[in-house]
Design the sequence.
């Protein structure tokens, strides 16, 4: 089966059947990852470039591994090693790379809209690996795969997304994907870190963490960055933990069954207690493994069956 | 564009002649003798005269834009006074006021003189607006009187707001000493509320993951500016009003204070923030394009006179400055060439504003704000006219752009009403 869209830019308006297909394919690749030889020849001869205009070791390694497991040739480009510092424009850089005949570009960029912009400049398949505070669809898909693995269904699942929604690249994609699959979403975090009118995406905002913990089947805990204190957004990490921290006592008191997710990297004892993060109800390390399988699925579905363009 | 001199006598025949200054509309001919208006209506003229058939066309005052950025001196790769003049002519503008945020900023009598001298070489009238503060730093006042003597018509630090209220107070107070109702024009955006945002704050900014700023970013500063103007009994002009809340403040202050004027751009009338959905960097402007509701309020404010005129805020930028992604793209768009077709479509076709009122917004009203000669259709005046086809439907494309820069979100838009000829400084420019 082929996906409806050539690129994966975001989950806003992304077709449900394509999300379902990615989930199913991810599960079959997860089986591959359990084999002694964890490699399939599906994308042999395909060239994928990982364009990282900002640092993200986890996402880059996850993509690289997915590419290698599919036998694709991959190359890494990072802004620090590039000519961007020498004043070359984004457009020049990516056109240059594409002229070397690539089949797909995985792009990570600090600016919202960058992945979409890339589709205007190159013909290859574009996969968004995070465009600033906009979307990070592969992260949301791996979160959804992890939830499906844990619960067996997504429809009517009650999901809380906790923390710095406004500066998150994960929140929007998760909201769109979960809503498309029929989950119920509640956001919880400081009002200063909540994007305006976000309720209009079909969800509820509740800044009482105890209520959200009690209500939810699973929560996705976002990283809180210490520099947020600089712009008068939160007073201190201590106050943050008091109001929104996922603490052992809160879990015990309100919902001992709650499933805990975190996209990483974690600030232990800030947004999440260390013993919660390491507990059995946390599926944080499953998310990491599912990340590789999900990215394999996405690359496979977007790239297989398509032949490399001749010059 | 074809340009020829008015060598012999010129007759604009069978035109719908709109005089925005006298608020009249008649059908007839205009006889232009040796470049000057000779007679209007039933004109007698030599048979050797050059005739331009104006059947079904409007002839009226050349348009006047009191807010353009022509980038000279310093950024001539974006625009210069010559290329800006061509863009103006294509849009029917015979007279513009240039903002001083050039490099260096126009903050001395010598630099005003430079613009005036360059203007004399250009095919339109260009009036420099001088900076309020030296280097537009918001600290020391410029030599306003000497700059006025050289030809400055108003003062603004446009591009940057005057944040320090005492500096604004002193600028307003100081400028009110001089004859001619000199205006201070303050770009109203509270930068501490703007907080490095790149668009209007709302559901669209939330969906795009872009940082937005709320409407009060503008309206708070507009209110401050109006109150300080009132307090110092001086003239203030509010440029590029974008927010409905600013309109409310202007309206209430205007009720008992008449030294306030305001302008709105075609793009704030034409677009709303939802149009930014695909990260079109040509829609990145300051102040930002706001909501549909704001847009409606702006349109009504033109109808009821709260906002006095249209000004394009023509702001050329090179392709590279717009192609680098929404966050790093420069603020601003060009607007001269598309202005009439856009404004006519929105105000006349979609909002039933009558043609005479619409023409005033682009001719007599801006001229009045700047104190320019306004009785242009009286005998003996140099011909400074525009010929319009108000019914022509056309699609705006890059080919219609005469500016050095192409940063227009109107590209691909269907417009209504087209400039056919712009007549000024002894030249007939066929668009
Ligand atoms: Zn401005």
Sequence:
């Amino acid at each position: 089966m082929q996906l409806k869209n050539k690129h994966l830019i975001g989950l806003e308006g992304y077709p449900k059947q394509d999300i379902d297909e990615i989930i199913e394919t991810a599960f079959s690749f997860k089986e591959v990852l359990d084999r002694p030889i964890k490699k399939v020849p599906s994308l042999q001869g395909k060239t994928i470039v990982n364009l990282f205009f900002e640092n993200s070791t986890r996402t880059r390694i996850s993509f690289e591994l997915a590419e290698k497991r599919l036998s694709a040739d991959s190359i890494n480009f990072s802004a620090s090693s590039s000519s961007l510092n020498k004043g070359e424009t984004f457009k020049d850089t990516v056109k240059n790379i594409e002229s070397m005949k690539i089949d797909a570009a995985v792009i990570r960029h600090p600016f919202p809209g960058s992945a979409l912009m890339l589709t205007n400049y190159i013909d290859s398949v574009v996969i968004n690996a995070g465009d600033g505070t906009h979307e990070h669809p592969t992260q949301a898909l791996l979160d959804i795969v992890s939830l499906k693995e844990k619960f067996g269904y997504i429809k009517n699942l009650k999901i809380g997304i906790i923390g710095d929604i406004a500066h998150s690249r994960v929140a929007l994609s998760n909201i769109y994907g979960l809503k498309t699959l029929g989950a119920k979403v509640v956001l919880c975090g400081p009002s200063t870190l909540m994007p305006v009118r976000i309720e209009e995406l079909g969800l509820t905002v509740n800044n009482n963490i105890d209520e959200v913990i009690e209500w939810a089947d699973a929560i996705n805990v976002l990283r809180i960055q210490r520099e947020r204190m600089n712009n008068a957004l939160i007073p201190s990490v201590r106050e943050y933990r008091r109001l929104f921290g996922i603490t052992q006592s809160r879990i015990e008191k309100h919902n001992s069954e709650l499933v805990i997710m975190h996209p990483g990297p974690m600030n232990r004892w800030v947004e999440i207690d260390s013993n919660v993060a390491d507990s059995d109800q946390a599926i944080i390390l499953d998310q990491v493994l599912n990340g590789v399988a999900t990215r394999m699925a996405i690359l496979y579905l977007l790239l297989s069956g398509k032949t490399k363009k001749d010059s | 564009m074809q340009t020829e001199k008015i060598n012999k006598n010129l007759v604009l025949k069978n035109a719908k002649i709109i005089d925005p200054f006298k608020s009249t509309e008649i059908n007839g001919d205009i006889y232009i003798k040796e470049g000057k208006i000779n007679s209007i209506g039933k004109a007698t003229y030599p048979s050797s005269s050059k005739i331009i058939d104006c059947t079904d066309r409007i002839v009226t005052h050349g348009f006047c834009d009191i807010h353009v950025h022509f980038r000279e001196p310093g950024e001539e790769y974006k625009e210069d006074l010559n290329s800006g003049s061509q863009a103006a002519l294509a849009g029917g503008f015979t007279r513009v006021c240039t903002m001083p945020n050039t490099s260096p900023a126009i903050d001395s009598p010598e630099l005003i003189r430079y613009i005036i001298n360059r203007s004399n070489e250009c095919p339109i009238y260009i009036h420099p607006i001088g900076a309020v503060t030296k280097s537009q730093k918001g600290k020391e006042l410029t030599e306003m009187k000497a700059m006025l003597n050289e030809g400055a018509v108003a003062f603004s630090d446009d591009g940057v707001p005057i944040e320090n209220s005492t500096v604004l107070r002193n600028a307003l107070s100081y400028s009110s000493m001089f004859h001619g109702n000199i205006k201070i024009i303050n770009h109203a955006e509270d930068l501490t509320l703007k907080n490095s945002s790149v668009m209007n704050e709302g559901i669209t900014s939330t969906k795009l993951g872009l940082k937005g700023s709320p409407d009060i970013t503008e309206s708070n500063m507009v209110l401050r500016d109006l109150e300080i103007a009132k307090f110092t009994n001086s003239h203030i002009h509010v440029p590029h009003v974008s927010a409905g809340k600013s309109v409310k403040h202007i309206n209430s202050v205007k009720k008992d204070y008449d030294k306030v004027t305001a302008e709105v751009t075609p793009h704030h009338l034409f677009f709303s923030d939802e149009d930014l959905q695909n990260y079109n960097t040509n829609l990145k402007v300051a102040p930002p394009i706001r909501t549909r509701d704001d847009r409606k309020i702006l349109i009504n404010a033109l109808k009821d006179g709260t906002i006095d005129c249209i000004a394009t805020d023509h702001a050329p930028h090179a392709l590279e400055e717009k192609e680098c992604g929404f966050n790093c793209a420069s603020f601003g768009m060009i607007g001269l060439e598309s202005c009439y077709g856009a404004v006519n479509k929105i105000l006349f076709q979609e909002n039933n504003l009558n043609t005479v009122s619409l023409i005033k917004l682009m001719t007599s009203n801006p001229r009045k704000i700047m104190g320019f000669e306004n009785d242009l259709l009286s005998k003996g005046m140099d011909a400074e006219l525009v010929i319009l086809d108000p019914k022509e439907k056309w699609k705006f494309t890059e080919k219609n752009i005469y500016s050095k820069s192409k940063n227009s979100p109107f590209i691909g838009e269907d417009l209504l009403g087209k400039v056919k000829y712009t007549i000024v400084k002894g030249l007939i420019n066929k668009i």
Q: What stands out?
A: Residues B 158-159, 187, 239-240 surround zinc ion (CB under 6 Å). The first helix of chain A runs from residue 16 to 34. The interface with chain B takes residues 12, 89-91, 109-114, 116-117, 131-135, 169, 172, 195-198, 200-201, 231 of chain A (CB under 8 Å). The mean pLDDT of chain A is 92.
